[in-house]
Amino acid sequence: MPRTLTPGARRILDVAADLFYERGIHAVGVDLIAAESGVTKRTLYDRFGSKDALVAAYLEERDERWRGSVRARLAELDDAARRVLAPFDVLVPWVAGNARGCAFVNAFAELPDAGHPAREVIAAEKRWLRELFRDELAAAGAADPDGVALVLLLLHDGALATTGAAGMPEATAAAHRAAEEARDRALAG
Asked: pLDDT tens digit string along 161-172?
């Protein structure tokens, strides 16, 4: 994805992001994106090369926003044990504006081709979150930080999926409580 976007490319990416998230990747064609963006299809292809590259750019930008939210929360926290739960702390406000759940899981379900450029973006986001949990658990002195990090990742993604698929916004609070219990057990061990 280009770091500096022209105004037309910015419109394309913003419109595509909304449409891909709300309607699904396969349900949205480049004709619709171009029309909603007020650009030609040629401009879309000149700026992004392909729909696949545009999907990857959408997920990269979403990942940057998510990581920024988590990092901002981490910057507010001094206590190592409290930092473990930072991704859960920002989950409630994040899902308030993202009712369809995890964009990465949604995209993964639509993109069975392992060679699709968005698949690496999806995997990288999940690896980053697990590594963040592991690093924060280790800094807090947790036993088995890698194993507990996987549990926290599962709780986190499960909360997103349940919130979106089942319309249960209370899933994020339940996941936060379960993550706190898992963290406390790991720190007591």
From this structure: 998 889 888 999
- CATH number of the domain located at residue range(s) 58-188 in this protein: 1.10.357.10
Global pTM value: 0.93
Written as six digits, the tokens of 126 are 């999940």
CATH of 1-49, one of 3.30.70.1230, 2.30.42.10, 1.10.10.60, 3.30.720.120: 1.10.10.60
Tell me the pLDDT tens digit for each residue of 7-18.
Answer: 999 999 999 999
Question: 38: left (phi > 0), else alpha (psi -120 to 50), else beta?
Answer: left
Phi, psi at 79, each rounded to 5°: -75, 125
DSSP codes joined into one string, 78-136: --HHHHTTHHHHTHHHHHHT-TT--HHHHHHHH---TTSHHHHHHHHHHHHHHHHHHHH
